[in-house]
Amino acid sequence: MRTQVGIVGAGPAGLVLAHLLHLAGIDSIVVENRSRSYIEQRLRAGLLEQGSADLLIETGLGERLQRECMLHDGLFIKFKGELHRLDFRALVGKSVMIYGQQEIVKDLVAARLGYGAPILFEVGDVALHDLGGPHPRIAFTQNGERREIQCDFIAGCDGFHGISRPSIPADRITVFERIYPFAWLGVLVEAPPTRDELVYTHHERGFALLTMRTPRLSRLYLQCAPDEAETNWPDDRIWEKLRLRTAGGEGWQLSEGPIVQKGITEMRSFAVEPMHYGRLFLAGDAAHIVPPTGAKGMNLAIADVRVLARALTAFYKEGREDALAGYSRVCLRRVWKVQRFSWWMTQLLHRFDDDNAFDRRRQLAEIDYITSSRAGAMTWAENYVGLPMEWE
Ligand code: RFL
Ligand code: PHB
Questions:
Q1: Which tens digit of pLDDT belongs to each residue from 284-304?
Q2: From 12, 22, 78, 200, the catalytic residue
Q3: What angle do CA 254, 255, 257 make, to 5 degrees?
Q4: What is the mean pLDDT of residues 249-253?
Q5: Is the pLDDT reported for residue 249 higher than 90?
Q6: Per CATH, which fold does 5-72+96-177+268-351 belong to?
């Protein structure tokens, strides 16, 4: 097999890239080691920045998104038992929306299969070859047979645990990393959201977040120990902690219902530089991970592939290589601002066991500042809704 761009991974990064390349008349083949139904059910992100949503809408993927998404003009921060609202519209004139990552994946897969472009599901033993030369190759096993795709370029969109990043010689990239001393326990609950916007909660016993998927499905997160097993978290214990951490304020009642799914997510900040090696370009979680507190991972993946599609289009349509050469530099400007913001929200809202009483007072003072100062609120809002694409 031969293609112009071989794409490893059918997550948001790989699928959005494949879609943008298709619109630019550039051929690609996507290889994915999971099944179609697995990637369409995998519960992950929920919050889309306006810029990410606009890109999907402008490229013809907005039909169901615009019908089903939940538009949010602000969010709530709860601390010292009181609810405060951050109004993005008033502060920075933008909104965000809730639309599940797996819904975006479904829309992208349907669109791609609809125009007859290939996604090879359930491939095994994926390996990348000749990355430093002009004809890189993707080798894999499908239906028991070893196969190969010859490419002009390879996009490594296979997430944090994929094979693309480890295919780069270790001395050709630099890793930047921070692992946090806690994790998130996430649950999906059959109950309407407690509030119509997200509630980020600071509590001395630990962070909690109330988000949602639909008007009838809530998504709730709790800070927990990093090495904890789901079996340590029977439903009663989850509700007890959630009630405690979100309690307080007039008329407050946590919306409860049956827990239909549970999962634990480790918290990590991670980035590599540069985001390419030879003819391999990394995008999304393959290149960087942010803790989910700022809701940025999928948005950053979409921002990367926007830059990559533009650079590949400049190469194929105008014979220019400068945009590909600048890919990593352009992406990393956004990546590091998003890394900073995601770290900042994480350290602001979580309980760190080695913090002392001084640190807790400092945290509370900072949240108080943000919720009472327009300048403070604006900094949060500007980053949360997504930094402008024009900064690239
Ligand atoms: P993905 O989604 O991990 O997709 C990678 C794909 O590659 C496949 N793969 C391989 N394919 C072929 N060969 C191999 N060897 C392969 N190895 C792996 C995988 O099966 C998969 O299909 O990476 P991508 O596309 O870069 O997208 C990144 C996002 O998934 C991620 O950043 C977000 O989910 C992060 N995130 C959030 N991001 C947001 O923008 N807003 C949010 O509200 C938000 N909330 C979250 C989140 C992530 C969470 N967890 C579970 C990590 C909440 C949580 C709890
Ligand atoms: C989600 O809806 O899953 C979500 C929203 C905001 C976050 C993290 C996750 O910060």
A1: 999 999 999 999 999 999 999
A2: 200
A3: 130
A4: 90
A5: no
A6: FAD/NAD(P)-binding domain (3.50.50)
What are the residue ranges spanned by the domains of the chain? Answer: 5-72+96-177+268-351
80 is catalytic: no
- Is pLDDT at 391 greater than 90 in this prediction? no
The model's pLDDT over 216-232, given as tens digits with 9 standing for 90+, comes to 999 999 999 999 999 99
Judge whether 292 counts as a catalytic residue.
Answer: yes
Assess whether the previous peptide bond of 234 is cis (omega < 30° from 0).
Answer: no
pLDDT at 250: 85
Nearest to 77 by CA among 330, 293, 288, 388: 293
How are the residues of the chain apportioned to helix, strand and coil, as percentages rounded to the nearest 5? 40, 30, 30
Confidence of residue 279 (pLDDT cuts 50, 70, 90): very high
Q: 296 CB less than 6 Å from ligand 2?
A: no
Query: How many angstroms separate the alpha carbon of residue 296 from the centre of ligand 2?
Result: 9
Straight-line distance from the first to the last Cα atom of the chain, in angstroms, rounded to the nearest whole number: 35
49 HSE (CA, 13 A, CB side) = 24
- Helix axis angle, 297-318 relative to 327-349, nearest 10°? 170
- Helix (H) / strand (E) element for 41: namely helix 36-41
Q: Give the span between the Cα atoms of 384 and 377, in whole angstroms.
A: 10
Angle between helices 297-318 and 12-23 (to 10 degrees): 30
Distance 239 CA to ligand 2 centre (A): 19
**Quick check: 21 pLDDT over 90?**
yes
- Residue 158 reports pLDDT greater than 80: yes
Q: Nearest to residue 109, comparing CAs of 197, 195, 11?
A: 11
Instruction: Assign 151 to helix, strand or coil.
Output: coil
Ligand 2 atom 6, closest CA = 295
The answer, yes or no, to whether any atom of ligand 2 lies below 6 A from the CB of 201, is: no
Angle between helices 327-349 and 357-372 (to 10 degrees): 110
Q: How far is Cα 392 from Cα 143, in angstroms, rounded to an integer? A: 42
pLDDT value of residue 296: 98
Residues in Cβ contact with 59 at an 8 Å cutoff, skipping those fewer than 6 apart: 19, 20, 23
Mutate to test the pocket of ligand 2, among 42, 44, 47 (most ligand atoms within 8 A of CB): 47
The pTM for the full model equals 0.97
Residue 390 has pLDDT above 80, yes or no: no
